[in-house]
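Action item from last meeting closed. Structure (232 res):
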C-alpha cells in the first residue's frame, strides 16, 4: 500500500480519520438542533430542518467548521455544548497503535484539521493523543479550509514538506481532491468515518478501512516490535 522508505511526512485529519465521526454527526444533527429549538422555543423538527439546510449551504467553507461562527449565528455556546457531549468522543479502532508507531519512526506526524483550536484542545484532552504529533495545525490559522487550494500553499510555508514524499489521510473526498490538485501523491480515504453508519465509496481514492496494515508496514521499516494493544 505505502512504501514507508519514501515517506517523510504524514498529514492526518482528525474527525472521521483518527476520531469517530459519530460524535460530530450526533452533535450537529441531533444535539444542537434540539438545544437550538429549546433555547428559541421553536418546534424541533422544523428547527432541525432549517439548521441542516443552513449547514449544507456553508459546507466546504471555514464558517462550516467555526465554533465562534455557530455560537453567534445560533445564540448558543457551541463549545460548552460540545463539553456536555464529550463522553461521546472516541478514537477510531487501531488509530492509537498507528500513532505510537509513527512517533517511534523517522516520519514526521502532523495533525491537519479544519477544526478550530478550542475543539482540537477538547478532543486532544479527551483522547490523550496530543503527544504523538510533531505538530498540530488548524486551517483556522490560515483563514482557509483544507478544501481551498490557498490552504495548501500557506501550509507549505509554515510546514515545509515534499508533496511526493507526503502521505495524507482524510475522510473528506473534497479535501483529498484539493490535496491531489496541489500535488500530494500518496492519498488514502477513510470509507467508514462514523461507526454508526455504513461505509461509503471512496471513489477514485484508495480506501483505508483500518490503520492495521499501515502500522505493520511501518513497524517493519522502522524495526520496532508491535506491542499488544488494548481494546480501543
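Sequence:
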Amino acid at each position: 500500500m505505502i512504501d514507508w522508505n519514501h515517506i517523510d511526512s504524514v498529514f492526518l485529519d482528525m474527525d472521521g480519520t483518527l476520531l469517530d465521526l459519530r460524535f460530530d454527526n450526533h452533535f450537529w444533527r441531533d444535539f444542537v438542533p434540539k438545544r437550538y429549538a429549546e433555547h428559541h422555543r421553536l418546534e424541533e423538527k422544523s428547527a432541525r430542518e432549517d439548521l441542516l439546510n443552513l449547514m449544507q449551504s456553508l459546507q466546504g467553507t471555514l464558517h462550516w467548521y467555526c465554533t465562534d461562527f455557530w455560537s453567534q449565528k445560533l445564540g448558543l455556546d457551541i463549545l460548552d455544548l460540545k463539553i456536555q457531549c464529550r463522553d461521546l468522543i472516541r478514537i477510531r479502532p487501531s488509530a492509537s497503535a498507528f500513532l505510537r508507531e509513527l512517533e517511534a519512526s523517522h516520519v514526521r506526524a502532523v495533525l491537519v484539521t479544519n477544526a478550530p483550536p478550542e475543539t482540537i484542545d477538547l478532543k486532544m484532552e479527551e483522547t490523550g493523543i496530543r503527544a504523538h504529533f510533531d505538530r498540530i495545525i488548524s486551517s483556522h490559522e490560515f483563514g482557509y479550509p483544507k478544501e481551498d487550494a490557498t490552504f495548501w500553499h500557506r501550509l507549505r510555508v509554515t510546514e515545509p514538506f515534499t508533496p511526493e514524499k507526503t502521505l495524507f489521510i482524510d475522510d473528506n473526498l473534497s479535501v483529498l481532491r484539493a490535496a491531489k490538485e496541489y500535488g500530494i501523491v500518496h492519498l488514502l480515504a477513510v470509507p467508514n468515518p462514523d461507526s454508526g453508519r455504513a461505509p461509503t465509496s471512496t471513489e477514485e481514492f484508495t480506501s483505508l478501512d483500518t490503520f492495521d496494515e499501515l502500522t505493520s508496514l511501518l513497524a517493519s521499516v522502522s524495526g520496532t516490535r508491535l506491542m499488544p494493544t488494548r481494546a480501543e
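Note appended to the action item: Confidence is low (pLDDT under 50) at residues 225-232.
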